[in-house]
């Protein structure tokens, strides 16, 4: 009987998603650097991330403090920000090369001058996002809502449009 319960508990624990390592959060607080680390589900509210290097980090489900989050000049290349709430966040001049922003909330966020080369924004809500001077090359915008977005001087090439809502409200396939 005990072996059966032990097996059930072991299986349940292995089915849980990997959560942030406390030492990774502490390292980020101390150094503003956490390359390729697991910060999924972490509470990062109140941590100074201006200019931080989070390249390759897993931030899926992390609590980032939407609305007052300042990620200006932050390196987020190849980071996993799927499902992240970045509404109203300042990501100006951040590096988002190859970043996974699937299902992210970017409503009203400032992405001025960002590189979204190879980024995946499938299903993201980018209503009113500011993409002035941004670079979108090989960017996946499938089912992305960009209504009201600002695209002044943005460089856009080889973008994947499938059911993408454009700034004027029209849909492009």
TrEMBL record:
Pfam families: Pentapeptide. Residues 1-20 form the signal peptide. The keyword Repeat applies. Keywords: Repeat, Signal. It comes from the Bacteria. This is Pentapeptide repeat-containing protein. It comes from Gloeomargarita lithophora Alchichica-D10.
């Amino acid at each position: 009987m005990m072996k059966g319960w032990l097996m059930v508990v072991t299986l349940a624990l292995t089915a849980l998603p990997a959560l942030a390592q406390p030492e990774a959060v502490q390292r980020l607080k101390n150094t503003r650097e956490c390359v390729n680390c697991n910060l999924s589900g972490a509470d990062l509210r109140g941590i100074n991330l201006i200019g931080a290097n989070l390249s390759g980090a897993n931030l899926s489900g992390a609590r980032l403090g939407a609305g007052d989050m300042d990620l200006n000049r932050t390196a987020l290349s190849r980071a996993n920000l799927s499902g992240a709430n970045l509404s109203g966040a300042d990501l100006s001049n951040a590096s988002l090369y190859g970043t996974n922003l699937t299902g992210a909330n970017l409503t009203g966020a400032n992405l001025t001058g960002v590189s979204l080369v190879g980024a995946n924004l499938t299903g993201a809500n980018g209503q009113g996002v500011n993409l002035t001077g941004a670079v979108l090359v090989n960017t996946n915008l499938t089912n992305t809502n960009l209504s009201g977005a600002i695209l002044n001087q943005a460089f856009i090439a080889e973008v994947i449009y499938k059911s993408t809502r454009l700034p004027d409200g029209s849909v492009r396939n």
